[in-house]
Amino acid sequence: MPSTIEHATAYRAGVKVAWRQAWHDALYGEAGFYRRGEGPAGHFTTSTHGALGVVFAGAIAHLADREGATHVVDIGCGRGELLTHLHEARPDLALTGVDVVSRPNGIPDAVAWLRSPGGGSLPPGLDGLTDVLVVAHEWLDVVPCTVAEVVAPGQLAVVVADPTTGEEEPGEVPTDQEIAWCAQHWPVDDLPVGARVEVGSTRDAAWSDLVSRVRRGAVLAVDYGHLRADRPTHGTLAAYRAGAFVAPVPDGSCDLTAHVAVDSLDHDELRTQRDALRALGVKAALPEHESARTDPAGYVAALARSSAAAVLTAPNGLGAFHWVLRRCDPAGTRAGTAD
Questions:
Q1: How confident is the model at residue 31 (pLDDT cuts 50, 70, 90)?
Q2: What are phi and psi for residue 176, nearest 5 degrees?
Q3: What biological-process terms (Gene Ontology) are attached (predicted)?
Q4: CA nearest 137: which of 73, 187, 193, 93?
């Protein structure tokens, strides 16, 4: 596999490209970040990892039951952490992982695997799904989108960046489609010069494509995001490496992510992770202290579950993530009602 240096120099030195393209190549190119051997878990922890993942998987299994699903598909599943937890908890569920890498070693044999092109693109074999719950956990935030900047009152320019340094400058005007998306979901007329907009049209398109693959079932996106009333003035583009924030440089050496305009996604339900998990029975209540004497092992296990539940539902942490749910009937059309 080429090094990140070779990846970065695929561009002519000093030539800046639109963030959307540089971002995509940095994550999903031949030497992209998500193709690295250590996988995402080598750089950051999500709700699907470790002790958190055990509790989270239980909630996903409960949701699958509620939606009448016998099959769970995990989009952008890393190295299959959530699927492994699900198989341990519910071996009766059919499970499929979708990611840009080949099937990892160590995941249960019962888990099916599809290799994805990356970004918002999905494999052709993922289609015609029935009785399914499709989970896109922290997928849309790494579907690259156009980053734009207000360069004059009411006027946007696409932000371009040097793939080797991250140095930026304003470029061309966004496309008509991107301008129309902003007018509907992220109006710029009242934004100050220098404000940034992360244009969500690519995320909306990826979400619509994913929903179209389901004939009967439900599709769930879990991600950090924002609503129209609280769009961030200066954007959210960020990078992570080895558990730390770093400068966003699209050279393949770090994760690149931006929050999702979750209310622009077609949905039937939209709620915080805190509310969604509580509705699925995830509680942070401590076990009875007396059980520490009568059932020490059970007490320790219950205490671990309670601690994980507290982290997953923390209102200023993972509990502030958004759960976006879309239901489909056998014709692939809406089966629920939008809230």
A1: confident
A2: -60, -40
A3: methylation
A4: 73
Q: Tokens at residue 61, please?
A: 């299994």
> Residue 10: pLDDT band by 50, 70, 90 thresholds?
low
Number of helices (H) and strands (E) in the chain: give both, helices first. 9, 17
The region that residue 118 occupies, defined by phi over 0 for left and psi between -120 and 50 for alpha, beta otherwise, is left
Specify whether 165 is located in the same domain as 252.
no
Range of the domain at 187: 13-26+144-198
- Round to whole Å and give the CA distance between 154 and 168: 20
Number of domains in the chain: 2
Task: State the amino acid at position 192 in one-letter form.
Answer: P
- 278: helix, coil or strand? helix
Model confidence pLDDT, tens digit, residues 78-117:
989 999 999 999 999 999 999 999 999 999 999 999 999 9
CA distance 6 to 173: 30
Predicted confidence at residue 7, as pLDDT, reads 41
